[in-house]
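hiii, so i know i said id send this last week but things got crazy w the move. better late than never?? heres the sequnce for the chain we talked about at the cafe, plus the structure i predicted for it. fair warning i was half asleep when i ran it
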Amino acid sequence: MCGELGIEIIAPHQQPQRARCPQTHHSFPPKRNHRRFTMAAAAAAAASSTLLRASNFSSARPVLRSAVGHCILPRSAGGSAAPICTRSGSRRRAAVVRASATGAGGAPAAALPAALLFDCDGVLVDTEKDGHRISFNETFAEKELGVSWDVELYGELLKIGGGKERMTAYFNKTGWPAKAPKTDEERKEFIASLHKRKTELFMALIEKKLLPLRPGVQRLIDEALGKGVKVAVCSTSNEKAVSAIVSCLLGLDRAEKITIFAGDVVPRKKPDP
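okay and structure toks below
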């Protein structure tokens, strides 16, 4: 997918160790000195082979998110740009991609990145705990399957990429509902029907704007597009869900300028690629 954009993805850094509060069991990223994330900072990040990264799903424990208010680019002890923990999700990330532009006389330009690649769930919007999980549970309830995924369980299930794959793995491990078909082929159709309904319920949440964009996302995208930087969203979620988030929350004008690579358009979903 990235080859179509003519870009080079920068390898991720090692995730910093997270501190844990013994009283509440909440996990917090290490304290750092921060500065606001702008396109200039993105250019510096591209030059130093850094990328924006998402943190874990906090081991499925409740996390105080109010402090994560702005898109920021931390600095390492040496003063260079360091990775940023952007939110929950099993290794979800928005990658800053290196440009190959050169300046006058053939010298490397202190240029903007060639493109910004965003994951969707947990990067553009905090969707997992109060979006996808709720929609899965509403679907299970409608079909009277006797299944409900709590936050801790769903945090573990997020290690499996893709909603259909997630449900299949869960039922294979815990046992299929009594109402589920018996053959493998029929079960695939059953899972597909559940996922279709789950997507409809999730899109309704998005259309009602019950799950807002994360702070700073729209500003960063506007700045990137305004400076001619390509913007794309790469996600294992299905294309309808991702398109709904981009068009409903960012607006049609921006959506027309953003390329979407969704889970349904690749033969094998992450982490395989």
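btw The longest helix spans residues 184-207. thought thatd interest u
miss u guys!!
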